[in-house]
């Protein structure tokens, strides 16, 4: 079984990270500016195809003239991953039924950029690891641990046992994100698009935090909320 990686940056980072083997690289005939990708693809068969042929292989994903057929991304079981030696200030992100692949990819990108140790998501009602989510992550999925859990509420319990405080983003929470102490081991929980946090996930959380908004738009996209919260975690770790 293999996966498709579409787009110049996702393919470049997949080859650079080296966490999974590339099987075949497809390039648009006559495309320019691909020297770095060709160099990293040493040992991988490279074939050139027409745009129509690449479009058919990409199944609607934006490929920018570059497609990589590769082994699937490594995805850990939470029960195995939780045994890792985490630093005292580790940050993880847990997704409560994030189903949009673009949101999923954008959250992974922010998590990797802000130094999170992993992104945890469920087996059901979760965005797939698809070309669309890989493209939105802009290569970040190649560098961060992806962790799948069968039951998120039970998974939050395992995180607590490993020393993580569970901080969930909830627009109705009275405690504002900036007023919370987010140092130490923190698992940030991001609720689903539209529905927000499920009741059992909310109950399992140690902290419920809101992001204040003051303009005419009264809610934030899930991936934007995650990025703001991750940036606040990084700020507190840098400035104490």
Please tell me about this protein's structure.
It is a single chain. The protein is α/β, with parallel strands linked by helices. It has two domains: 3-70, Ribosomal protein L30/S12 (60s Ribosomal Protein L30, Chain: A, 2-Layer Sandwich), CATH 3.30.1330.30; 75-239, SPOUT methyltransferase, trefoil knot domain (Alpha/beta knot, 3-Layer(aba) Sandwich), CATH 3.40.1280. It is built from nine helices and twelve strands. It has an eight-stranded parallel β-sheet, with helices on both faces. Strands 1-4-2-3 form a four-stranded mixed β-sheet. α6 (131-137) links the parallel β7 and β8 (145-149). α5 packs parallel to α6 (131-137) and α5 (101-113) packs parallel to α9. The model has no long low-confidence stretch (mean pLDDT 93).
Structure keywords:
single chain, 240 residues, alpha/beta, 60s Ribosomal Protein L30, Chain: A, Alpha/beta knot, 2 domains, 8-stranded parallel beta sheet, 4-stranded mixed beta sheet
Write the layout of secondary structure elements.
Elements: E1 3-6, H1 8-17, E2 22-28, H2 35-40, E3 46-49, H3 51-58, E4 66-70, E5 75-77, H4 78-81, E6 91-95, H5 101-113, E7 118-122, H6 131-137, E8 145-149, H7 152-161, E9 165-169, E10 175-176, E11 186-190, H8 199-204, E12 207-210, H9 222-239
Parallel strand pairs: 2-3, 5-8, 6-7, 6-11, 7-8, 9-11, 9-12, 10-12
Antiparallel strand pairs: 1-4, 2-4
């Amino acid at each position: 079984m293999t996966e498709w990686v579409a787009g110049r940056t996702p393919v470049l980072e997949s080859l650079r990270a080296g966490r999974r083997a590339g099987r075949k690289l497809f390039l648009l005939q006559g495309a320019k500016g691909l020297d770095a990708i060709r160099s990293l693809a040493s040992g991988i068969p490279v074939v050139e195809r027409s745009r129509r042929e690449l479009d058919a292989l990409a199944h609607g994903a934006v490929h920018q003239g570059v497609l990589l057929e590769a082994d699937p991304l490594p995805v850990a079981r939470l029960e195995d991953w939780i045994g890792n030696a985490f630093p005292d200030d580790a940050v993880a992100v847990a997704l409560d039924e994030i189903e949009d692949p673009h949101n999923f990819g954008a959250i992974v990108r922010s998590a990797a950029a802000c130094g999170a140790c992993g992104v945890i998501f469920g087996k059901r009602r979760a965005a797939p690891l698809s070309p669309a989510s890989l493209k939105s992550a802009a290569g970040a999925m190649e560098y961060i641990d992806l962790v799948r859990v069968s039951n998120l509420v039970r998974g939050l319990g395992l995180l607590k046992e490993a020393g993580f405080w569970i901080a969930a983003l909830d627009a109705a929470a009275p405690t504002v994100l900036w007023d919370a102490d987010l140092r130490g081991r923190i698992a940030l929980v991001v609720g689903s698009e539209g529905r927000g946090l499920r009741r059992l996930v909310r109950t399992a959380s140690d902290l419920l935090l809101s992001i204040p908004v003051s303009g005419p738009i009264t809610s934030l996209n899930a991936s934007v909320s995650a990025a703001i919260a991750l940036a606040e975690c990084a700020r507190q770790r840098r400035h104490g």
